Amino acid sequence: MTLVPVYRRRPSALHSARAGVSASFCCALALVGALYQHPLVLGAALAGTLLAAAGAGVGRETLRSLRLALPLALLVALVNPVVYQAGDTLLVRGGEALGRRWDITLEATVAGGLAGLRVMVLIVAFWLMSVAVDPDALLRVFRRVSYRSALTASLATRLVPVLARDASRMSDAARCRPVAPGRLAVTRSALAGSLDRAVDVAAALELRGYALAGRPARRRLPHSRQDLRVGACALSIALIAMAGRVAGAGEVDLYPRLELAAGVAEALLAGAIVALACAPFAGRGARMGVARD
């Protein structure tokens, strides 16, 4: 269950802002990881995301994402230099096997490490969105586009923790038996239980008339202080990231020789990302007007 992100309401600027605004803030941090592969910029995006999580009161929950992100990043970092031998700086001269040479170069090793760091930034940013943005409110943004798709996604986000808890309880009960069944039997039982639950949910929804539901009416709510704070920071992060990419800041050339840009532009870009990620939670205004009903 520790690897299943669960949203809980908290008194923070990120929780009290509109779901679309808060999701845009997390996506803006993920955009930095998608656009850049410079280690300083990626480190700033990762640090900014973790600081934002701490400011929103979900720092401990967001740190759990590292249990998933670190192994994936390590896997990418190890696989890339093995399967891709481009680069001029040879580190390990391997032998020949399966009709090819297995050399390891410095450039491929660094490229794998940077790719793994990008994976970490993306996972942590979207994990923050999972624990700090109300999934029901976020899906209500899309329900006017496709009501049934939004309902399906909403049920999926609600049922995943329930099914994980059912599987955990079945596993605990299996270990209490004199002869514990194998993992395949427990998995088969959990799958059968999830199908039975799906049938019951479908029948309940049909009885409540969800099959005949139409497009809901539009609700217009005034923008709150937190909407403006979080939205302004999200827009600023996205614009600065795209502007820096167009201007050539944070350039990294990996092949055939490793070249990393290291100057004032990269330092300013990294500092701006961290500062804007922390800005919604700084000052007295971040602790006022955090309730939204």
Keywords summarizing the entry:
single chain, 293 residues, mainly alpha, 2 domains, two-stranded antiparallel ribbon, two-stranded antiparallel sheet, 11 helices, 6 strands
The helix content is 55-70%
* Rg, Å, rounded: 23 Å
Low-confidence stretches: none
Average pLDDT confidence is 82
Please write the string of helix (H) and strand (E) elements.
Answer: HHHHHEEEEHHHHHEEH
Shape: flat
Strand order in the largest sheet: 1-4
SS content category? mainly alpha
Total individual domains: 2
User: What percent of residues are in strands?
Assistant: under 5%
Total strand segments: 6
* Alpha plus pi helix count: 11
Amino-to-carboxy terminus distance: 29 Å
Taking the sheet with the most strands, its summary is: 2 strands, antiparallel
Characterise this structure.
The chain is mainly alpha-helical. It folds into 2 domains: 13-139 and 226-287, no CATH class; 146-210, no CATH class. Helices cover 64% and strands 4% of the residues. It contains 11 helices and 6 strands. It has helices spanning 13-16, 19-35, 39-55, 59-63, 66-83, 106-132, 135-142, 147-175, 183-207, 225-247, 264-278; strands at residues 90-92, 96-97, 100-101, 104-105, 252-253, 259-260. The strands form 3 sheets. A two-stranded antiparallel ribbon has the order 1-4. β5 (252-253) and β6 form a beta hairpin. α2 runs parallel beside α10. The longest helix has 29 residues, at 147-175. The protein is flat. It starts with 12 loop residues before the first helix and ends in a 15-residue tail after the last helix.
